[in-house]
Amino acid sequence: MILKKNIVFLGMMGSGKSSIGYLISKKLNLVFVDVDNLIEEESGINISEIFKLKGENYFRNLEEKVTLKALKGFNKVISLGGGGFINNRIRKEVLINHFSFWLNWSESILLKRIKDSKKRPVAFQASDVEIKLLIKKRTKIYSKAQFKINCNKLSKTEIVKQIIKINELN
Fold first, then answer.
1. Are residues 76 and 6 in contact, defined by beta-carbon separation less than 8 angstroms?
2. Average pLDDT over residues 105-114
3. 52-83 burial string, b = 16+ CB within 10 Å, else e?
4. Is the torsion defined by CA of 122, 123, 125, 129 positive or negative?
5. Quick check: 117 and 69 in contact, CB under 8 A?
6. In a 10 Å sphere around its CB, with 0-12 CB exposed, 13-18 middle and 19+ buried, how is residue 44 labelled?
7. Cβ contacts of 35 within 8 Å, gap of 6 or more
8. Cα–Cα distance measured from residue 49 to residue 38, given in angstroms and rounded to the nearest whole number
9. C-alpha of 18 from chain center
10. Is residue 83 pLDDT above 80, yes or no?
11. Contact at 8 Å (CB) between 43 and 50?
């Protein structure tokens, strides 16, 4: 399949952007790009270490640079980091030039998925209340995506089918 735009997945950490993105890329025979993996490759250390050693501002600047570079061209499936779409430049680029899919889950499911995760520095050591506030804040921005997939009652296979169906109509 040849697309004139990239398919971009966004949503909270733990929403399945990478796993669903990978499955979609295989189904459509497209290149899969995981922005978090690119950031780790570029920096030579994992994201938790970047946060610990250099701080969130450094990470967000690197995330912007890496993401905008990854979004160039077309015919790719791209998984943004959980905070990527919060960045104005990234969000503007995604909304204008790509197909954006928000993988939306209930607060309770997301909380279970990200609580106490060592891989997610923004949520690491955060209380349930702090994580819920982050979800609420980011949800307002994620809702600007072109397509919203309500994932709560769907299997991975059903999510993939729904996205492919939407993609075929566009």
1. yes
2. 91
3. eeeeeeebeebbeebbeebbeeeebbbbbbbb
4. positive
5. no
6. exposed
7. 63, 66, 67, 70, 78, 79, 80, 81, 84
8. 15
9. 7
10. yes
11. yes
- Is the pTM higher than 0.85? yes
Interatomic CA distance for residues 118 and 61, integer angstroms? 22
Confidence of residue 153 (pLDDT cuts 50, 70, 90): very high
Scanning 44-106, the segments in alpha helix (DSSP H) are 47-54, 56-70, 88-97
- Averaged confidence pLDDT in the chain: 92
Q: b/e for 115-134, b at 16 or more Cβ within 10 A?
A: eeeeebbbbeebeeeebeeb
Closest by CA to 87, choosing from 47, 66, 60, is 60
Give the C-alpha separation, 68 to 90, whole Å: 6
The residue count of the chain comes to 170
Query: Nearest 5 degrees, angle CA 66-CA 69-CA 73?
Result: 150
Distance CA 96, CA 83 (A): 18
**How far is 112 from 115, CA to CA, in rounded Å?**
6
Residues 6+ apart with CB under 8 A from 122: 13, 51, 56, 82, 83, 134
